Amino acid sequence: PAAGFPPKLILSILKAFKRQLGNDGVELHAFAAGPHNDESELPGGEWDSDEVYVDDVKGGILDTKLVKAGRAEEMEWIMKQKVFTKVPVETAVAEQGRLYDLKWVDVQKGDKVRSRLVVREIKARKRGDEKLDPATVFAAMPPVEGLKALISHMQTEQTNSKGESLEMMVLDISSAHFYGEARRRVFTTLPEGYEEPGYCALLLKTMYGTEDAASVWQDTWGDHLREAGIRLGSASSALFSREDLRGLCHGDDFVVVAARRDLLEFELHLKKKFEARRTGHIGYADDCDESTDVLKRTIRVDREKRVIESEADQRHVEELAKMFKLERCKPAATPRTKLDDRETARIAASPILDKEACTFYRSATMRAAYLAVDRPEISETVKVLSQAMSAPREGHLGLLKRLVRYLVGVPRKVVEYPQQDVHEANLFIFVDSDWAGDVGTRRSTTGMAMMRGRHLLRHSSTLQASIGLSSAEAEYYALVRGGCYGLGMQAYFEDWDLQLRVRVYSDSSSARAFAKRRGLGKQRHVMTRFLWLQERIRMKRLEIVCVDGKQNCADLLTKALTKNEIDMHCRRLGVTDKPGARNAQRLRVV
Predict the structure, then answer these.
(1) What are phi and psi of 295, to 5 degrees?
(2) pLDDT band at 24 (very low <50, low <70, confident <90, very high)
């Protein structure tokens, strides 16, 4: 079938076939071959040219005119920034040994095509002495909970020290990597249309695709912010703050929370050096946006309820339904059901998927994983599906299909961030474990939900690396994970000059007792590297607190639950259905 081959190859074969038919005197159009009611296989655009361009991310065929316009715009920017200069090829061969190739990466963005000219400096093809020191190419990325922590700050502190209301601004830097001054001499081929016999390009600025581009860009924007008296974080240099201003940088996107005057001052300072474009400005003032898209999430402000909502990209749900052809299916009430020994054995005995089906399974599972970052009720199911990524079987595909049926029934969930009292908004980490819950390996699952007051910052469902010999040991490992992430999040808030206490909640009395004692005691099989938690508790860096098992929202992240239990824990986490979704409460469990 043609579906297994690249679109560019298929189109080339069809063009050759059409030319041959023409040479043979055969007409090939609707009047000669017979009319049909189907749309053309190719979208409208300029397709008569021999130049065919494919979307390097989505795989579809791109309009030639749009690609040429995108590439022309990129080259105009490269020449404006003086990214390279021409030097003799002999110089490059003497210093670098060879030239790095350039490659165009074209991606459809709305009604335009964004084209990037990248350097193919492939690390894997370098000899040992050519590879760069990892320290020179490192660039910090903000934690996944960074954006949610900023929303929580906006809804908790609410005003700055002068009593001015906090707002959020999102800024995008155009072609960010072209601003960094090159730290080393990198030689490439010349871009198409700029070739000159005997000459190549020496980079004066970093380009996308060079190993140290992200690191140089971070140093560039970091130095620029320091000129305005803004400090970079210690726990993460992707975070920054100044009195009454806090923010983060994710690649070429800046997200900042401050009062209006400070936001405009920050925007003006960025524009002194970079071409910055404001993509969103949300707040409770009438002239603020009511919603904006940040890092593939939609952030909305409900001015009546004084609540901010965060919603995952819903295109993943739509694509999953299309992939399985389940747009009109009968929804499932829960992401999955509990697997007993018999069902686990049946899945393990089912045939391994072929290569094409494996790719399909992995693609669908990763889409679900993107959703799980913002939807805690499917996190445990995605964890189970991810275990089979290396060699998925037909039984695993059935589990994935059920998850998609659940998402069809509940396609939209939002995390709500209501305004709250700053004095009650410390870090609360709920942990739980399902001892030996994995029937195949008898490993335990750790569930963790991190909250600042009533605001959900992060959640996770993970298998423990070692097999716990008792439920107390498994619960203690869950406490270790909660304490680890709690102290990490505390350090991130300290980068923003916000001091928070850490409390870890567990429903296991034996695990809490073991965490508060000194040494192994009778639990001699516990690895000593996990005893750091006991030391931090003695230093009063965090507290271990009891929570009733029925009230522990981390239970949602350890095993399959009923629909009523899922809804109860989601409400505690501030996760609600968005109007427009099907009413899953009326669905029977199928």
Answers:
(1) 50, 50
(2) low
Identity (one letter) of the amino acid at 552? Answer: N
Both tokens assigned to 251 = 């690649």
CA dist 474 and 514 (Å) reads: 12
The pair of structure tokens assigned to 217 is 């860009």
Q: Select from 411, 333, 330 the least CA-distant residue to 580.
A: 411
DSSP 3-state assignment of 507?
A: coil
User: In b/e form, how buried is each residue of 300-332, taking b as 16+ CB within 10 angstroms?
Assistant: bbeeeeebbbbbbbbebbeebbeebebeeeebb
What tens digit of pLDDT does each residue of 229-267 get?
999 999 999 999 999 999 999 999 999 999 999 999 999
- Of the candidates 212, 210, 203, 208, which has an alpha carbon nearest to the alpha carbon of residue 139? 212
Q: What is the largest CA-CA distance in the chain?
A: 91
Query: For residues 559 and 445, is the Cβ–Cβ distance under 8 A?
Result: yes
Q: Is there a contact between 257 and 166 (Cβ–Cβ < 8 Å)?
A: yes
* Alpha carbons 157 and 160: distance in angstroms, whole number: 7
Backbone angles phi, psi at 254, to 5 degrees: -110, 130
CA-to-CA separations, 208 to 171, 205, 212, 215, in angstroms, rounded: 20, 10, 9, 12
Encode 32-96 in three state secondary structure. HHCCCCCCCCCCCCCCCCCCCEECCCCCCEECHHHHHHHHHHHHHHHHHCCCEEEEEHHHHHHHH
Segment 445-481, tens digit of pLDDT: 999 999 999 999 999 999 988 888 888 889 999 999 9
Q: Of 426, 435, 438, which Cα lies nearest the Cα of 473? A: 435
Q: Which residues contact 280 (CB under 8 A, 6 or more apart)?
A: 168, 169, 170, 289, 291, 292, 293, 294, 299
The span from the CA of 268 to the CA of 262, in Å, is 10
| pLDDT score of 525 | 64
| Antiparallel, parallel or unpaired: β 427-434 and 502-506 | parallel
Encoding tokens for residue 297?
A: 């999430």
Query: What pTM did the predictor assign?
Result: 0.86
Most confidently predicted of 105-114, 138-147, 264-273 = 264-273
What beta strand segments (E) does 496-586 contain?
Answer: 502-506, 543-546, 575-577
CA pair distance 287, 299, nearest whole angstrom: 16
* The token pair that represents 322 in the structure block: 């299309």
Query: 275, exposed or middle or buried, with CB in 10 Å at 0-12, 13-18, 19+?
Result: middle
